[in-house]
Amino acid sequence: MKKTASVFIPHYGCPNDCVFCNQVKISGKTTNLDYVAIEKDIIRDISTIEEKDTAEIAFFGGSFTAIEGEVQEICLLLANNLRKKLNRDIKIKLSTRPDAIDEKIIDRLLKYKVDTVELGVQSLNDEVLFFSNRGHNSEQVFKASQLIKQANISLGLQIMIGLPNDTKEKLYNTIEKVISIKPDIARIYPVLVIKDTQLEHMYRQGIYKAIELDEAIDLSAYMYKKFENSGINVIRIGLQATDNINFDKDVVAGPFHSAFGELVLNKIYRDKIEQILLEENFAQKTVVIKSHKKYISKILGNKKRNYNYFKDKYGISIKIESSQDDIIDIMGRRFSDKSVLQ
């Protein structure tokens, strides 16, 4: 298992403010870099990672490859020195903008043995990128992705749901384009309206309407299934709840839920169960599902969300029978956790 020591560098290297972004609010960090404190934090975090797990240092929050070259060198040298100091095979990851990748930057990344680069893509529709004030276009995403892959650096793409001027059709097209790029990993984030952003102003003026939670779950589930079935490992769904990222703090509107990723996986399981019940013309009051204990929460849903769905819509109760087999059995139809995505 890979575990990460994260270094947040909010807004460093960002040439403009995207309408949805306030990294200080999201990360809870300011832009000042204290290298001594950064090293101490990394050592503290990695000391908690067991030897059997893969340790990783990740530079997140800003556009790492767009900051001053000297700062990049200091951060990457610090990470490399910690590999030696801690005598561990520590991976290095960073996030950046698609328009901040070129051959010279790739050479620097290779020099310091960077393992993974995540691009904040958000959309591959140029109109959506323009209205989100991203400052780059879709062609730059394709070019940056190609350079990273050609250098044998692992590629990650971050995609957002509910951006200004986006539609389901545009999002579906973005999903297909992401699949064509063939990144190794992906992150899925629904757009939240954060305090002190341009999007908050647009929201309060009625120019932007935040996406509803159920729609965000449906679209995220669709995207997750498409990516995973195409060999793209989705490593995150939804922003992590923090002291700031909560409705009673800096989230003004949008599909925020502290267990958003769990809700998406619950929806995928619910769809699979519903598909089988309809195909089998199930007409009884109770359906028995045999399952290994690790799948039970996904079947029943967060706060019994799935259980209540079937009870309310079909008058069907779900009864779980524990199984030692690593499978799920519904009416004799057996499948694995992975095949739920099919």
From TrEMBL:
InterPro entries xref list: ELP3, Elp3/MiaA/NifB-like_rSAM, Radical_SAM_C, rSAM, rSAM_horseshoe, rSAM_sf
GO molecular-function terms, A-Z: 4 iron, 4 sulfur cluster binding; catalytic activity; metal ion binding; RNA binding
Gene Ontology process terms (BP): tRNA wobble base 5-methoxycarbonylmethyl-2-thiouridinylation
Region forming the signal peptide: none
Gene Ontology CC annotations of this record: cytoplasm
Keyword S-adenosyl-L-methionine: yes
Organism expressing this protein natively: Peptoanaerobacter stomatis
Keywords per UniProt: 4Fe-4S, Iron, Iron-sulfur, Metal-binding, RNA-binding, S-adenosyl-L-methionine
Entry cofactors: [4Fe-4S] cluster
Domain Radical SAM core: 1-226
Pfam families, sorted: Radical_SAM, Radical_SAM_C
High-level lineage: Bacteria, Bacillati, Bacillota, Clostridia, Peptostreptococcales
Name of the featured protein: Radical SAM domain protein
